[in-house]
Amino acid sequence: MSESDIGLIGLAVMGQNLVLNMERNGYQVSVFNRTSERTEDFIKGPAAGKNITATYSIEELVSSIKKPRKVIMMVKSGTPVDAVIEQLKPSLEGGDLIIDGGNSFFRDTERRSQALEAHGLSYLGVGISGGEEGALWGPSIMPGGHLQAYTHVEHIFIDIAAKVNGDPCVTYIGPRGAGHYVKMVHNGIEYGDMQLIAEAYDLLHHGLGLSAADLNDVFTDWNQDVLASFLIEITADIFDYEDEETGVPLVELILDKAKQKGTGKWASQEALDLGVPTPTINAAVEARILSAYKVEREKAAEVYPGKVRRFRGDRMNFIEAVKDALYASKINTYAQGMALLTTASQEYEYSLNLAEIARIWRGGCIIRADLLEDIRAAYADNPNLSNLLLAPFFRDALVARQDAWRFVLQTAVDLEIPTPAMSASLAMFDGYRRSRLPANLIQAQRDYFGAHTYQRVDRKGTFHTEWTK
């Protein structure tokens, strides 16, 4: 049997679909899984008759791959990745390449890259977005690590990546942990976008009384305009799905406790560490945390009973206003994520190309949206753009929608409908465009109780005041 072009460890659904994607594009792939039963099921099932080689030990896997060997790990982030690397090291030789295709924390990727370099091994931390379908038919791929190492698998990644008008959704991101950093920020934007859509649903369903069928019509319509995106598309599909047993829209039967795997939280924590405001992403993370307090929320609902309120104005005007508020808030979410990438690029010397990042997010990934072409164009026109909100296209888009945005949030308060992410987006917008904020009072307070000093607007220097006589 001929040697394989590449090997893959971890045959959960994402791993299996990546293997099938690579094989479909002409590559022979060797596979290994910790449990041999899963390997057997895969080989006898989806991989049957395909150019895929089953192996049942790390040593067998490595020996079945052409030199320099290339091995992709699709395992759970954290200690499992370190464990697999330790198992691989004795069988690999200098120049061989290990690829982490999971959602690893970028600092772990930085550490592993440095450690493996000392052993003469190359390492890539690769963000892969698109879920199960993307892995099978074309994901967005964000590789980071040594550029020379990337050249060994560039042709494979180009072949298996999603294509937008023939343009592959993959590009070399940068050194060390850059790929996983960009994937982390991608997921932070994803958290914000999902929460914003959920709030729009809440406003239309509970505030306006729209049925699931009505919501399917609205979101289907929205997906034909500026909001066109994967998340809007699947949301329309969700509203169209009825439970087979009860005939009730399935979304209404799903428990309102949102789970998370931690990547959104990482983005929020990293933004705080770098001093980059990401209030929409933070609000989305906190909203998921709050949703987990289901029992406590039910008790609070009894303690603080609200009134059933409905919007009594023009229904079509309100739907259009919610659309505008959602689009404006979405712009802010992407702007916050791109601002975090801008700062991280400087802090970690990643030399990120934001236009290229927006380009590869246009297809395959969860946050793919028509909006990303406008983001790509903004950074292509001005690579030194400090914030997306300053680009002329987005300035005009926000100015045109801010009245509707404010109207929707005022209405949400009147209807007792929480909109944490949408409200955070507007607050960020208003704060960002204010030339003077009340932080002068905070500085005065800090100087009062801690002698932390302050600066003045009318003269240079650092000052301290004895505030009590």
How would you portray this structure in words?
The structure is a single chain. The chain is an alpha/beta fold and 469 residues long. It contains 20 helices and nine strands. It has helices spanning 13-24, 36-44, 58-63, 79-88, 106-117, 131-137, 147-151, 154-160, 178-207, 212-222, 230-239, 263-274, 279-291, 294-303, 315-347, 354-360, 371-381, 392-414, 420-432, 439-450; strands at 6-9, 29-32, 52-54, 70-73, 97-100, 122-129, 140-145, 163-164, 167-168. The strands form two sheets. Strands 3-2-1-4-5-6-7 form a seven-stranded mixed sheet, sandwiched between helices. α4 links the parallel β4 and β5. α9 (178-207) crosses α13 (279-291) and α12 (263-274) packs across α13. The longest helix has 33 residues, at 315-347. It starts with 5 loop residues before the first strand and ends in a 19-residue tail after the last helix.
Number of helices: 20
Cα radius of gyration in angstroms: 25 Å
Number of strands: 9
- Read across the widest sheet, the strand sequence of neighbours is 3-2-1-4-5-6-7
The separation of the N and C termini measures 90 Å
- Overall average residue pLDDT: 96
Oligomeric state of shown chains: single chain
Describe the largest sheet: 7 strands, mixed
Assign a percent range to the helix content: 40-55%
Structural class: alpha/beta
Q: Topology as H/E string?
A: EHEHEHEHEHEHEHHEEHHHHHHHHHHHH
The proportion of strand residues reads 5-15%
Identify the overall geometry.
globular
| Unreliable residue runs | none
